[in-house]
Structure formats: C-alpha cells, structure tokens
Design goal:
Blueprint lengths: L5 E6 L5 E6 L5 H11 L5 E3 L2 H15 L2 E6 L7 H9 L4 E6 L3 H10 L10 E5 L8 E3 L1
Parallel strand pairs: 3-5, 4-5
Antiparallel strand pairs: 1-2, 4-6, 6-7
Length: 137
C-alpha cells in the first residue's frame, strides 16, 4: 500500500529551516502525536529546589525577565505550555517544576501550595522584585 510522506518544517533558528519526515499513518491521532513530540520546548525544568535559585532566577536577573513558574499536575510538558514557551521566548522565563512531592516540598511551602490536589498552579515572579509573586490557580 502506498503511503505518501508528509514533511514538516521545523525552525532551528531565525534563518535555517530543517525538514522533518513524517512516516507514520495518515490518521489525525498519529499526526497530532508526531506534531506534539516535535514541538520546541523552551521551558526550564526544575527537578530540585536549588535548581531554581542556582539556575533559573540568576538567568532571569541577567536578562531582566520576569519568571513564570508552572506547577503542573502531570509529569509531561503539555502542548499548550510548549506553545506559550515559544511565544514568550526571550520576553518571559518559563519554568516548569516537576511534580515530585519529595523534592518540591520546599517550593510548595514557599509558594503556598498545600497539596497535589491544588495543582496546576502558575506563579509569576516580577523581574524587579524576586521576593514578591503572583499566584494563579
């Protein structure tokens, strides 16, 4: 049976385009899975609380960016967050905190998250004052 190849252009910078081959079935579910997998992800992933203070907050301060921390309920980065990280790249530092109760207890306490049932939560830290934060549920 003949299966035509579908090609998708993936940006690898401002001037260079890379063509990716799609060799899967021509079903909507399979094509959606391929596209979600190949989406760029510009979010910093925080596994341990010290990663935030050692890596992400200094990076935000260096470039004068506000920080948006996403506390997701699932371990996988959602397509919407990948999309938002692409749209707000270089304007907002997007951080995803991996939902692991053992490691993230300190961050949960700092940002007022009492249990995993409260997730997902978005916390925005302004660029001018890192001690203040705005919490969106």
């Amino acid at each position: 049976m003949f299966k035509p190849k579908r090609k998708k252009k993936k940006p690898e910078g401002s001037s260079e385009k890379v063509v990716m081959d799609y060799n899967g079935e021509r079903k909507a579910k399979d094509m959606k899975t391929f596209l979600e997998y190949s989406m760029p992800n510009y979010m910093d992933r925080i596994v341990f609380p010290q990663d935030l203070s050692n890596k992400s907050l200094p990076k935000a301060a260096k470039y004068g960016l506000a920080t948006a921390m996403m506390f997701p309920s699932k371990n996988k980065t959602s397509s919407m967050m990948k999309f938002l990280s692409t749209i707000f790249r270089r304007r907002l530092l997007m951080v995803e905190v991996v939902p692991n109760d053992a490691n993230q207890k300190e961050l949960y306490d700092i940002y007022g998250i009492s249990s995993k049932e409260d997730l997902p939560i978005l916390v925005v830290i302004p660029s001018d004052d890192t001690t203040k934060f705005i919490r969106y549920e």
